[in-house]
Amino acid sequence: MSQAQWFRGPICGVDNCRSRLFKNQDGLTICQYGHVMEGAIEFNDEDFESGGTQTRRVTNVTFNERGHVIRRENKVIIKESNERLFGEDAKSYYLKVLQKLLKVEIKYFVDLFMSDSVYSDYELVVKTNWILLTSGTTLLDILDLILLLYYSALQLQLYPIYMTDIIEFLRIAKIPYIKTLHLLPKLDVEKLPSSFINRLQPPSLPYKSQMYKRWDKLTKILPKLNVPISFYFLYIFRIYSELILPNTPDLFINTIRLLNKLDPKFKINKVKSTLPEIYLSCIMMFIIVLSFKMNDNDYSLYGYLQEFNKYESMKDFNNDVLNWDNDKINKFIDWVLDVMLSKDNKEDVTTMERRLHNIFQLDNVEHSQRDDNEYMKVLETIRSNERKENTKEEMRQLASMLFVRFSKLLNIDVKDLAKEYKKVTNDIKKVAKELEINDKL
């Protein structure tokens, strides 16, 4: 054995041995003259995920009556302490718990947006990015996990996943965000201070523009990523369709034409770049306003605004009750007082139940069919309105409606969206002459 494997210790003491040099071999501590230290113990830990327990193999070293070494291995189950941690211990433990939550969120993302066939590839990309994020000094939270998962999905570019989808699934709780503690071992949660608990399970959804401010910080750490414009074709067409614009195909083509002239090259982690969905939304708002300015549409702007606002109000009212604002709640209470609790009400229970069914939309399939039918009716009504000269007030209402709509869709503050819109229109002005729209800006 080499000299480097020996270490100094207390006097051996076996048979009056004065040696202070020892080495470890097979879990035993042996002096330079071959004496074995009595009571030496070897630990081999095995971690188990469930139960908050730990199994240790304990090797007890004793001697029989002839002086021969006897080794006995015993398994000892040691229950972990559930005492709350603080300081650096809490921070270190919190990152381990956050990593467990990340593994759970990966499964939700794959189920919602992908297929099981890409699970291993996606998980590998996520793990790589996770290592990069945790190497920094910033303390991460669940919002960082969600953005990390989205960024990793963009790196694969196998499925059309957009930030608007993430926002919507957070809102309807298909992606765990404000209710996550039940996904973690109870012992893990009990060990953490409340300040860390709030990072695992925030009291509310991300506030306006919070995701994009966090996105800017996160993307500066992660690998460079270029996303082609073609990846967002579905996003562009879908948004135009949701706005119930009869000339959606024309608007889509004009948007692609403008993008090709601008050549934005979505380099996501560059300092001056913004999230592609925000940039594209600004482009779409510009194209819509321009189409009415140039009178390219075969329908009335006034009629469009009237029908679209009515459709949105009806759709919002039929949303999940948990998402109702105070105005919708008050309307429902008024309806209950006027119809269900009126002393003069002679309608039977079946009728009232049917009315409740219509409000809460208990049958999802029928609800979807009704939505599709209503959408087509509104679309045909908008088409049937003859085109008229658009007034300045109507153009102002259109711009206001678009900013409110896209602000909600992107969960971004209107003022922040206006700043991004100004940047985009400045870029458009550089190619306006080439597109023959200079006089319309």
From TrEMBL:
GO terms for MF: RNA polymerase I core promoter sequence-specific DNA binding; zinc ion binding
Biological processes per GO annotation: nucleolar large rRNA transcription by RNA polymerase I
Keyword check for Nucleus: yes
GO CC terms, sorted: RNA polymerase I core factor complex
Domain RRN7-type, first and last residues per copy: 6-39
Record InterPro entries: Rrn7_cyclin_N, TAF1B/Rrn7, TF_Rrn7_Zf
Pfam hit, one: Rrn7_cyclin_N
Keywords: DNA-binding, Metal-binding, Nucleus, Transcription, Transcription regulation, Zinc, Zinc-finger
Source species, domain of life: Eukaryota
Domain Rrn7/TAF1B N-terminal cyclin residues, every copy: 138-186
Cell location: Nucleus, Nucleolus
Coiled-coil segments: none
Alphabetical list of PANTHER family matching this protein: TATA BOX-BINDING PROTEIN-ASSOCIATED FACTOR RNA POLYMERASE I SUBUNIT B
Assigned protein family: Belongs to the RRN7/TAF1B family.
Designated name of the protein: RRN7-type domain-containing protein
Species this chain originates from: Candida verbasci
